[in-house]
Amino acid sequence: MLKIKKDLFIGIDLGTSYTKIYLKEVGIVTELPTVIALNKRNRTTVAIGEEAKRMIGRNPANIDVVRPVIRGVITHFDEALLFLESILDNFKSEYWPIFGSRLVIGIPLDITEVQKKGVIDVGLSSGAREVFLIEEPMAAALGANLDVEQAKGVLIVDIGGGTTDIALISLGGIVLGKSIRIGGDTFNEKIIDYLRLKYGIIIGEGQANEAKVQISTILNKAGSFLIKGRDILTGLPKELNFTSQDLRESILDNLLEISTVVKDIINLAPPDLLGDISSSGIYLSGGGSLISGIDEFLAKETKMRINLVEEPRYAVIRGIGKVIEDFNNFKKLIINV
């Protein structure tokens, strides 16, 4: 039986790796990989989410497997629309909103006006009557229960699947911020390159991600992950044990780039705000922050305390949820009102 609601107010963290959905008065209702599989002939949807992700590198010639969001930006408009429509159709089968639906979508810092319009267009084309945008580090700070509206500096580093957003926030606005195209997917690419160059073995994205997740530390700890790939020279199967030291070496350049940008933000911070963040430290969120040792690495590089927020993977969507639940209060944080 359909549930009648005045309207559907939905929050979307449309990430490079995963998409998370928040429904007002319900909470986080969906989390799935941002992947869609399409029939090549008629462009109909074959699968989305986990089922589509399992097809990457294994799909037959008649099926396209597409990741519509790359480095935090919608690069495949039609596929992103089909992906979003498939998710929202589930709500339409359960709820009947009298006044339609509204969306709040998180976006990275530094994307262009054209890219912002692309996000809005995808939301509107999916059937929403209104689409609002919020910058992801602001949402992450809200999701970490930080008071972003006080006259006090808050520095947050959000390591997502496709981007890392670094933002210094005060009085409900971003004083300084930068988005760099480094995240969990970049770590996977670095692992693939590292194994090819150092050990002469070729693996795919899926196994690189599994190795990263299974090792999940750049600290010198015992344990390894058995890599099964192809020898570059012979073309035959080859195996090796991938360790935490290998993970550290493979993503070190990315971590150094993140720390450099964080230090740049610190160096440019107004003196009073610098005093604030020196006292409170830096807040770390996003799925990439779950690799053990990254917080210690950044603490050593920046000479500041690093605070890993609670459930960092969900900081952005929790923050978007807060905006939805108290929209009149947090409307001023929306960037396209």
Radius of gyration: 21 Å
Query: Which spans of ≥5 residues are poorly predicted at pLDDT below 50?
Result: none
Beta-strand percentage range: 25-35%
Named at the architecture level, the CATH assignment of the largest domain is 2-Layer Sandwich
Number of helices: 11
Strand order of the largest sheet: 4-3-2-11-12
For the record, what is the CATH homologous superfamily label of the largest domain? ATPase, nucleotide binding domain
Overall pLDDT level = 93
What share of the residues lie within helices? 25-40%
For this structure, the CATH topology of the largest domain is: Nucleotidyltransferase, domain 5
Number of domains: 2
Which sheet architecture does the biggest sheet show? 5 strands, mixed
* Global outline: flat
Distance between the termini: 35 Å
The strand count comes to 20
Helix/strand structural class: alpha/beta
Q: What is the CATH top level name of the largest domain?
A: Alpha Beta
Structure summary:
The protein has 337 residues and is an alpha/beta fold.
Describe the protein's architecture and organization.
The chain is an alpha/beta fold and 337 residues long. It has eleven helices and 20 strands. It has helices at 50-53, 77-92, 113-125, 136-143, 184-199, 205-215, 244-268, 271-280, 294-302, 315-325, 327-330; strands at 3-5, 8-14, 18-23, 27-33, 36-39, 45-48, 63-66, 69-70, 73-74, 95-97, 101-107, 130-135, 154-159, 164-170, 173-180, 201-202, 224-231, 237-243, 282-285, 306-308. Helix 7 (244-268) crosses helix 9. The model has no long low-confidence stretch (mean pLDDT 93).
